[in-house]
Design a protein that fits this description.
The protein has 281 residues and is α/β, with parallel strands linked by helices. It is 38% helix and 11% strand. The strands form two sheets. The chain has a five-stranded parallel β-sheet with strand order 1-2-3-7-6, sandwiched between helices. A two-stranded antiparallel ribbon has the order 4-5. The two termini are 28 Å apart.
């Protein structure tokens, strides 16, 4: 069984990392990052089968692709605290010549980053390619990807969703971060997504929902169930219900903190709600 005391401490520390990264450079996307902290911790600490070290081939291990690349602060923090690169490098977030750009890129050679992301709508397509490569190589490992809910307003997603079902890409788990917010407001006001469960099922996917997407144990349990559903001739979709800005009371339930950094006073309040657990960088 996972050590949930340690993992919950890690969740809090990652939230601190997110806040400190974006505050230092007065730039970045804290809202979605905070909402997906439990998912990333569950993925890298419990769910994924990972090899020691990092190589771009990724043979013999599970792979993850981040589609909504603007939530890089949480991705970088969890990668660093999972051993991919020194935690101290988080100090370089969004600086000139840093490997930790605002949207993840590959040309800096940052361990853990397999694809440039940030241009929304492409992650599922990339993940399908990786999943089919696994099959061609007789590699039984899985491909995970994360997309935003507003991101599903991009048409390329639905081409990919149709393709994956038609070709029985059943070593793929696509998680949708359902926080109901995007850069310009609530998704229901910008462009309603309708019944996503019914849509994915109509496209031929196996669909699961995790109602408590900010409860670490619920996320682990739900994602393990999703993992159990792979290999059955259908791709798997997980609808992960999260709260944008989770863990910082004045950032929660609003799109206002999609892409805005806290000032000094706001940072102090936010860090006070997330006391240091495993050591700041």
């Amino acid at each position: 069984m996972p050590d949930f005391n340690y993992l919950n401490d890690l969740v809090v520390q990652v939230r601190r990392d997110i806040l400190r990264q974006v505050h230092k450079v007065n730039s970045g996307h804290p809202g979605g990052s905070l909402g997906c902290t439990e998912f990333f911790v569950a993925l890298y600490q419990v769910l994924m089968e990972r090899k020691e070290g990092f190589d771009m081939d990724g043979t013999g291990e599970d792979l993850f692709f981040l589609s909504n690349g603007h939530i890089s602060p949480v991705f970088y923090s969890v990668l660093a605290r999972s051993g991919y690169f020194p935690v101290e490098e988080l100090n370089t977030f969004r600086l000139l010549n840093s490997r930790l750009q605002g949207h993840p890129t590959t040309h800096e050679g940052l361990p853990g980053i397999r694809v440039a992301s940030g241009s929304l709508g492409q992650g599922i397509s990339v993940s399908i390619g990786a999943a089919e490569a696994k099959k061609l190589n007789k590699d039984q490992h899985l491909i995970y990807t994360l997309c935003g809910d507003g991101e599903l307003q991009e048409g390329q997603n639905w081409e990919a969703i149709m393709y994956a079902a038609a070709n029985a890409v059943d070593n793929l788990i696509v998680t949708i971060d359902l926080n109901g917010q995007q850069i310009d407001g609530a998704t229901k006001n910008v462009l309603p997504l309708g019944n996503l469960k019914a849509k994915f099922e109509a496209f031929g996917w196996e669909v699961l929902e995790i109602e408590q997407g900010n409860d670490l144990e619920a996320v682990v349990e739900g994602m393990k169930l999703a993992k159990d559903k792979t290999g059955r001739k259908k791709p798997v979709c997980v609808l992960l219900h999260t709260i944008m800005g989770n863990g910082v009371d004045f950032m929660m339930h609003t799109h206002d903190w999609h892409g805005k950094a806290p000032n000094d006073d706001q940072l102090e309040v936010a860090l006070g709600q997330n006391p240091e657990t495993l050591g700041d960088y």
